[in-house]
Amino acid sequence: MNTEMSEVVVKMQIEAPPEMVFPYFTDPIKMAQWMGSQVVLEPRPGGVYQVQVSPRDIARGEYLEVTPPSRVVFTFGWIGSPLPPGASTVEVTLEPHEGGTLVVLRHFNLPEPAREQHLQGWRHYLARLEIAATGGNPGPDPFAEGM
Question: Which of 27, 114, 118, 126 has its CA 20 to 30 A from that of 7?
Answer without folding.
Answer: 27
